[in-house]
Specification:
Elements: H1 2-20, E1 23-24, H2 30-34, H3 40-54, H4 71-77, E2 81-82
Parallel strand pairs: 1-2
Length: about 90
């Protein structure tokens, strides 16, 4: 019984850390970006294209420069994304 309980606790902590991990918009793949709420495949491609043509984002607010990302969407995903030192 103790083993089962311990396994459940370990699984819970592993799952929680995965769920709470932020997505680094400078290194994330299109698939990772598309998994964010309100992003999807088209906006994810736009983010990667912008990043490849303009260079790395210096802040999450730089996403406002990407076609299809406005203040409302940024506000909805802000807690789930990060850049640079904020990703640690």
């Amino acid at each position: 019984m103790k083993r089962i309980l311990l396994s459940i606790i370990i699984f819970f902590f592993m799952f929680t850390s995965l769920v709470l991990a932020k997505v680094n918009i400078n290194t994330a793949s299109e698939e990772e970006l598309a998994s964010l709420p309100h992003i999807g495949t088209v906006k994810a491609k736009n983010i990667v294209s912008y990043r490849e043509s303009q260079g790395k984002f210096t802040s999450v607010e730089d996403l406002l420069k990407v076609k299809g990302i406005g203040p409302k969407i940024l506000e909805k995903i802000k807690a789930d994304i990060c850049v640079g030192k904020d990703c640690k």
